[in-house]
Amino acid sequence: MVKYELPRLPYAYDALEPYIDKQTMEIHHKKHHQAYVDGLNKTLGEISGEFHPQYITSILSDLNTLPESIRNTVNFFGGGFENHKLFWESLTPKNEAGPSGKLEDSIDVYFDNFENFKKEFSNKAMSIQGSGWCWLVFNQTFNKIELITTTNQDSPWTRRKIPLLGLDLWEHAYYLKYQNKKLDFIDAWWNVVNWDYVENRFSELMD
Ligand code: MN
């Protein structure tokens, strides 16, 4: 198994302006995400776990495969690594209107309509106390989409739920531009969600 690496952003640091500013993107990617990559590699290295045959999402789905001494650290850095990877991938400067296809249908079933879905997601995101994430996930047990929050860098994978879309609500994700105005950040973020990408993730699960 090769070491985990900081994934390249599929757009420039300033591409999401004015919704997410260049400086925030740069520090968030180069410093914060890099720190999760380094922490994960270092922790797995301590148990020769860099040779762990499974990818981090599988490890997070069953942390009991790891020695107890490093479970919490892998949960934090591994979650941080994978959460941020998905976060970058689910953003785009293209300004897409919203979901279509099967995902749109499913949103209509469980949230009535897209506007109401956005409202419920935003409310849930606002309810997070301290650092955490808000997610649209696929619940395999009940074969449905749902909203959840996680604290710190906990991953939906550790709850055996498949993340489709995630919003980082650590202050490092928005504080330079939005300071305490968390709702303004959430409202802005809707403008840069890559619905094509989210839909593809969902469609692959449905096939
Ligand atoms: Mn972050």
Structure notes:
The chain is mainly alpha-helical. The chain is built from eight helices and three strands; from the N terminus they run H-H-H-H-H-E-E-E-H-H-H. The protein has a three-stranded antiparallel beta sheet with strand order 2-1-3. A hairpin with a 4-residue loop joins strand 1 (132-139) and strand 2 (144-151). It binds manganese (II) ion (MN).
Defining key terms:
3-stranded antiparallel sheet; binds manganese (II) ion; 207 residues
Q: In a few lines, what is going on in this structure?
A:
The chain has eight helices and three strands.
Topology:
Blueprint: H1 22-46, H2 56-61, H3 68-89, H4 101-111, H5 114-126, E1 132-139, E2 144-151, E3 161-168, H6 175-178, H7 182-189, H8 195-206
Antiparallel strand pairs: 1-2, 1-3
Helix pairs in contact: 1-3, 4-5, 4-8
Bound molecules: manganese (II) ion (MN).
The CATH topology assignment is minor pseudopilin epsh fold
Distinct small-molecule ligands in the complex: manganese (II) ion
Q: Label the CATH architecture.
A: 3-Layer(bab) Sandwich
Secondary-structure element sequence?
HHHHHEEEHHH
Number of strands: 3
Dominant shape? globular
CATH homologous superfamily assignment: Iron/manganese superoxide dismutase, C-terminal domain
Helix residue percentage: 40-55%
Q: Quick check: average pLDDT?
A: 95
Largest sheet: 3 strands, antiparallel
What's the CATH class label? Answer: Alpha Beta
> Which segments are poorly predicted (pLDDT under 50) over 5 or more consecutive residues?
none
Q: Would you tell me the structural class of the helices and strands?
A: mainly alpha
Terminal CA distance reads 29 Å
What is Rg? 17 Å
The number of distinct helices, counting runs of at least 4 residues, comes to: 8
